[in-house]
Amino acid sequence: MSNSSNKYRLLVVNPNANPAVTKQVQESTDSVLGSDWHALAINPAQSPFSIQSQYDRELAEPSAIEILRSNPDYDAYVMACFDDIAVNAGRQFLDSPIINPVDASIAMARLVASRFSIVTTVEAMVPGIRTHIKRLRACEECTVRAAGIGVAEAAAATDEILDTLYYTVEQACSSDGAEAIILGSGGLTGMAGLVSERFGIPVIDSVEAAVLLATALKGCLPNYSRISTRS
């Protein structure tokens, strides 16, 4: 453990500059974190307000990497964006596990459903998510749908936003045969319980999945380092 309070420390990085999303990420993280962990969610000051395109991603990644470099002493890290922003770079210099929501949530969905769907925010995110689905060899079991709401809008969680989200989930279930749903955006964190209650199926909050996997990995591999986990 890396601090005097005898708690492990988790750093959760929201790579966009929207403090409302960061607040949601902190609340979601705290809701699933074990009592032996303390988490801090932060975001860069200089970054796109939302990451909704490849261009946004390219602008956001250097700031996210700099946050990781400036905070080398945490016990685990999560990038709170449905992408692998800064993850591969971070694994080159961090001596603690770093997890992204894509890998974590798809791994969990595979445990509870033979077919599942990722519901994200805007259509521009879909090609990048499909690239990750292909990378994880999940094309036969996973579909992706965009609700047509921006990340900043999603964070507001108004009744109108929720209705749009519910409609998209219903389409994923009825048209794609989804038996479980992944909420594929940091802006959608904290909404899984509402969606699951409405549809009666497993709904995975991708940020919470990454938090749980990162902390579990630290527990399984207490001596993890970038040297010991690479040939």
UniProtKB/TrEMBL annotation:
One Gene Ontology molecular-function label: amino-acid racemase activity
Top-level taxon in the UniProt lineage: Bacteria
InterPro entries: Asp/Glu/hydantoin_racemase, Hydantoin_racemase-like, Iso_Racemase_Enz_sf
Similarity field: Belongs to the HyuE racemase family.
PANTHER family: PROTEIN DCG1 (PTHR28047)
Name of the protein this chain belongs to: Asp/Glu/hydantoin racemase
Source species of the chain: Veronia pacifica
Organism classification: Bacteria, Pseudomonadati, Pseudomonadota, Gammaproteobacteria, Vibrionales
